[in-house]
Design brief:
By secondary structure, this protein is α+β, with helices and mostly antiparallel strands. It folds into 4 domains: 1-50, no CATH class; 55-91 and 148-304, Beta-clip-like; 309-402, no CATH class; 419-525, no CATH class. Helices cover 41% and strands 12% of the residues. The protein has helices at residues 36-46, 127-133, 155-166, 168-175, 181-186, 189-205, 212-225, 287-297, 305-308, 350-365, 371-381, 390-402, 416-436, 442-460, 464-467, 473-490, 498-520, and strands at residues 23-24, 32-33, 53-58, 62-67, 76-80, 82-87, 106-107, 114-115, 227-229, 234-238, 245-246, 252-256, 262-266, 277-278, 320-321, 328-329, 339-340, 347-348. Strands 5-13-12 form a 3-stranded antiparallel beta sheet, with no helix packed on it. A hairpin with a 6-residue loop joins strand 17 and strand 18 (347-348). It starts with 22 loop residues before the first strand and ends in a 5-residue tail after the last helix.
């Protein structure tokens, strides 16, 4: 998205007394003052909404965020408290308080919804559905475990509806969020809301104290604005973060802290006036999967640079190999059209490509972490797909993380060739990640960790004479850079995330690498 002129959003008069302002808050660059005293006296009030962005609005995007000053990579942009925390609507039975898996051995003594332990009964989060379910007169009975259970679809909508009477300020905030009601009606998404939420709540739970329109609205709000929190398996709605615009190459990264607040940081340097973006899809999906996801769940067509470029920024992430001349064929503009090789003018029927993708897609789905099968997959798909095709990149990424994890001695237990493969694949995937997930992002951090650790292991295997000579320095330096960046990016993740432990390991090994660099410095080649 192009930069915006944000000056319209910034006041030119002192926020305290209304006289002409000649200075701005240096943190947000938005709020203005006529003198230092007024700025100081206003700080207590201002600090809660002092943020380095402003909210703007246009006809295509609705509301979106724009940087109010230059931002450095890694800088904190926004930390937002959830208005609602709920369970994913499509889920197997889980504890309604903490989302841990359950087998039916505990349930809420008041309403019967499953819990993982008696302690979870007291968790306040569970109150809305607990109260609604009591109307039933008898306890909720869950009999199907370990498979998707539609009964759970009502939990998070009930938590939203509960705000209307119990926390009206939060309800008002919720009601300002986009719900795409018309588009959801056309796509028949509201029919599912009716069957799985409204009819279930009225018929089974016997709870009647709501209007159907509110259910359609909150189901839309959840679908369009909900943030999936990985651990625990929750979905959260956030008043400020919900305004972030989508891009398939976003300029921020997101994480969650222990309190389930969402934390948004600049992933790359962001210029004043630039739109601030996140990705609503998986950046490592190909264009047609990303577009399908955005169209069917967020109700818009993405027109970012990556989506408009059939080569996906030169990566050929969705290209296939022409069976006639071996050139790469990029996808047609319209998904259902035939593909066309511009090198030999051969037309490839759309059905052929659909079948090719389906066949290999099924094989990919069944690899299930098997290293030998994954390597075979890469060999066999060489003649059908581009080197970076998303199927191949998916498998390469899995292999980078798998190789060395399946034996007790980890990297030390690998052969030299296995180490070489891990390093080579890691570097290939990192190049793709640099295009789609640039800067301080979790994906790049994890890849740099794997690369840094592999280089360190390769160094350790060299004969002592080489290990301690100047010739060892370039490989050590590369390892040090990778581990330093991995540590920087991953250490902002919170302790409950696996990445936090990875960051600690990166920091420990980085010290060993630094020591080895000192040792080989000053030595003859
Ligand atoms: C989570 S909301 C973002 C905030 C929303 N614009 C608002 O006014 O509250 C997601 C919706 O914003 C719009 N949107 C976000 N990113 C967009 C993009 N890159 N292109 C077009 N529309 C976008 C779409 O309507 C999408 O369903």
């Amino acid at each position: 998205m192009p930069s915006s002129n944000i000056m319209d959003e910034q006041q030119t008069t002192c926020i305290v007394c209304g006289s002409a302002a000649n200075q701005r808050c240096s943190r947000c660059h938005v709020t203005s003052y006529c003198n230092r005293e007024h700025q100081k006296s206003h700080w207590k009030q201002h600090k809660t909404d002092c943020r380095p962005y402003v909210v703007q609005e246009n006809l295509i995007l609705g509301k979106y965020l724009v940087a109010s000053r230059d931002l450095a990579a890694g800088e904190l942009l926004l930390k937002d408290v959830p208005i609602v925390l709920g369970l994913r609507q499509i889920t197997m039975p889980v504890c309604v308080s903490c989302s841990a898996s359950v087998n039916g051995s505990h349930c809420c003594s008041e309403c019967g919804w499953p819990l993982c332990s008696p302690e979870c009964q007291r968790v306040i989060l569970h109150k809305p559905e607990c109260q609604a379910s009591k109307c039933r007169g008898s306890k909720v009975v869950i009999s199907k475990f370990f498979q998707i259970n539609e009964m759970y679809e009502c939990i998070t909508p009930l938590r939203c509806l509960w705000l209307k009477q119990n926390e009206p300020k939060k309800w008002d905030q919720l009601m300002t969020m986009e719900s795409h009601l018309d588009a959801r009606q056309k796509s028949k998404a509201t029919e599912l809301d009716k069957t799985n939420v409204i009819d279930f709540v009225r018929g089974y739970l016997k709870y009647q104290d709501f209007v159907d329109e509110d259910v359609y609205k909150v189901c839309g709000i959840l679908e369009v604005n909900g943030f999936e929190i990985p651990a625990p398996n929750f979905v959260g709605l956030y008043a400020n973060a919900c305004r972030l615009e989508h891009s398939c190459v976003p300029n921020t990264s997101r994480s969650f802290d222990e309190q389930m607040n969402v934390v948004i940081r600049a992933a790359v340097p962001i210029k004043k006036g630039d739109h601030i973006t996140i990705s609503y899809t998986d950046q490592m999906w190909g264009t047609s999967s990303r577009q399908l996801h955005l169209n069917t769940t967020k109700y818009f067509t993405c027109e970012c640079d990556r989506c408009l470029d059939p080569t996906e920024l030169g990566t050929h992430y969705s290209s296939i190999v022409c069976q006639n001349c071996s050139a790469l064929i990029t996808p047609p503009k319209i998904r259902t059209d035939n593909w066309f090789c511009t090198s030999c003018n051969k037309t490839v029927p759309a059905e052929y490509v659909t079948k090719l993708l389906k066949t290999w897609g099924e094989i990919l789905a069944n690899l299930r972490g098997n290293i030998a099968d994954s390597e075979d997959f890469l060999k066999s798909t060489e003649t059908d797909f581009s080197e970076n095709h998303h199927y191949r990149t998916d498998v390469k990424l899995a292999l980078v993380q798998l190789i060395g994890k399946q034996n007790e001695n980890q990297l030390a237990g690998l052969t030299d060739d296995q180490l070489k493969t891990k390093l080579h694949l890691g570097k290939e995937v990192l190049e793709v990640a640099d295009c789609f997930s640039p800067g301080c992002t979790r994906l790049r951090g994890l890849l740099q960790f794997e690369i840094g650790m592999t280089l360190w292991e390769q160094h350790r295997r060299q004969p002592k004479t080489i290990r301690t000579s100047k010739a060892a320095a370039p490989m050590l330096k590369e390892s040090e850079i990778c581990l330093t960046e991995a540590h920087q990016v991953l250490s902002v993740e919170f302790s409950m995330q696996d990445e936090h432990q990875v960051a600690q390991q990166a920091a420990e090994v980085k010290l060993l690498v630094a020591k080895a660099i000192t040792k080989c410095k000053g030595k003859k080649k």
